[in-house]
Specification:
6% strand, Cytochrome p450, 503 residues, 21 helices, alpha+beta, two-stranded antiparallel sheet, four-stranded mixed β-sheet
Length: 503
């Protein structure tokens, strides 16, 4: 089924690129390749030495009379608009960040803590194109606010529209009830995430039998097969939203939203450094994802969603809205729920997930696998929430700070001008010792569990959607799917119902 208003997904993903800084031009990339040995040496030094990393970012912090741009400092380059002439500051900086990630067991949280320590263990540190907020108090305040945003991810200008779809909810400022963000969120919720709708309840009741038919005789060790686990998440999420149980071929396409997760955090400079290899794969994934929608005749849902938007917010073609919505479904719904299930499956076996760091997680309260299983069966929701508190699928989010601020890096004041990017670090806020007792210890019975900001707000607190405007709209869907999958493996048949009864 096609309509005149549907349009071409190829035209959407191949539209002219935006947000190309001077240091991310092809000329800069060529020079980076020509000086690669020198950049690698500096990158290794910065990635292994906190003092050097801080110097790469803020320059001569011991002598403030020297302008940062003279030292090729990354922060000074940002304040100058990231011109091509200051590109060397980014060559060594991004390589240093990559090496630091490898040195910290590829754990994003471990990298965040390492960088935070490099900047003096204060309330803020710098990464990318802005400052990062780490305290629970500040992160909570931000999640309660009407956030200003733009096309930025991981505190750096996003690759739009080739890697990220433009105008996705992630990039839209919150605004009031008449804003574009509110309009998109309203039609998304009505079409896909309304837990009170008959079709949602009906699908939830069938979900466990769908899983059982495809996953006979499950074992706890099956969680180690992440490819199979992600495939199951894809089928469950798609079934709950569209009422269709995908075959393996279609599910393998959508599984790439989780498989390609690492691509989304890379700046355009690195994407071009590897000749847009990753961007090419994501563009094809977006085309193929729309192809799955078209194959199953689901276009009318998106046509209707576009019609239901206020005229000033309607997309020029229905396929553009489809691309934006399916980007959210794939990136957050499939990717986030897969990460959640992988963490829970590892914890049930007292294992550290692949993207986590062992020294940041303690299982001391549950010394055996049997203890872990009993803890899960006692309260699946609490177990899942604590798993995601200590190893969150979404570690942080980017906003724009509309005000000028003065921050301390290594005890020295620095002025952040208005419109500076700001990353609020949910994963570190969830470990703030002012709120969470023994934050490294896995404990689903902890009394402060509902204060965790894992789903971009304190999920489970009174009036959560009013208090936290941008709280994840798909949080219940994620819990329903996670409970259905994990419940099938551990032998719980009432999956999905506990998500509606928070205690």
């Amino acid at each position: 089924m096609q309509t005149e208003s549907w349009g071409s997904i190829e035209e959407v993903v191949n539209a002219p690129v935006e947000n190309v800084a001077g240091d991310a031009t092809w000329l800069s990339v060529l020079c980076m390749w020509l000086t690669l040995p020198l950049n690698l040496i500096q990158g290794c030094i910065g990635g292994l030495c906190r003092f050097a990393m801080a110097f790469f970012v803020i320059g001569c912090y011991c002598c403030r009379c020297i302008p940062g741009w003279i030292c090729c400092a990354a922060m000074a380059s940002v304040k100058c608009g990231r011109p091509c002439i200051l590109a060397p500051s980014w060559w060594r900086y991004v390589l240093g960040g990559f090496i630091a990630l490898l040195a910290n067991s590829r754990s994003r949280l471990a990298l965040f803590i390492w960088e935070w320590e490099a900047f003096g263990k204060g309330d803020h540190y710098w990464h990318g194109e802005g400052y990062w907020s780490v305290t629970y108090e500040e992160c909570s305040r931000i999640t309660k606010s009407q956030q200003k945003r733009r096309s930025a991810f991981a505190c750096i200008e996003a690759c739009v529209p080739d890697l990220f779809a433009s105008n996705i909810l992630l990039f839209l400022p919150t605004g009031g009830p008449e804003s574009e963000w509110a309009a998109i969120r309203k039609v998304l919720h009505a079409a896909m995430l309304d837990r009170g709708a008959y079709h949602y309840t009906e699908r939830l009741q069938k979900l466990s039998s769908q899983i059982a038919a495809e996953w006979p005789e499950p074992k706890l060790t099956d969680f180690d097969d992440t490819e199979k686990l992600r495939l199951m998440v894809v089928k469950c999420v798609f079934f709950m939203i569209f009422g269709i149980w995908l075959d393996d071929n279609d599910a393998l396409i959508l599984r790439k939203w989780r498989d390609y997760a690492v691509f989304f955090v890379l700046p355009r400079l690195i994407h071009r450094f590897i000749f847009n290899f990753a961007i090419g794969r994501v563009k094809q994934l977006r085309v193929d994802t729309v192809g799955v929608i078209e194959k199953h005749g689901l276009q009318p849902m998106f046509v209707e969603m576009n019609k239901n938007l206020p005229e000033k917010y309607r997309r020029p073609t229905d396929v553009k809205l489809c691309d934006e919505i399916m980007f959210a479904v794939g990136f957050a719904g499939i990717g986030g729920t897969s990460a959640c299930c992988e963490t829970v499956g590892a914890f049930l076996q007292r294992k550290i997930p692949e993207e986590a760091s062992a020294h940041l997680i303690s299982f001391e309260k549950y010394p055996t696998t049997e203890d872990m299983l009993e803890a899960y069966k006692a309260s699946p929701v609490k177990y899942i929430k604590e798993s995601c508190r200590i190893d969150p699928p979404v570690t942080s989010a980017t906003r724009v700070d509309p005000d000028e601020r003065e921050l301390l890096f290594k005890g020295i004041p620095y002025t952040m001008p208005p419109e500076t990017l700001n990353q609020y670090v949910i994963s570190m806020a969830n470990r703030d010792t002012k709120i969470f007792e023994n934050p490294d210890v896995f404990d689903p019975t902890r009394k402060e569990l509902d204060q965790a900001l894992t789903w971009n707000g304190a999920f489970g607190t009174p009036n959560e959607e009013t208090v936290y405007p941008r709280i994840c709209p798909g949080r219940f869907l994620a819990l329903d799917v996670a409970q259905a999958i994990v419940g099938h493996v551990v032998g719980i048949k009432d999956d999905g119902r506990d998500a509606r009864m928070f205690c």
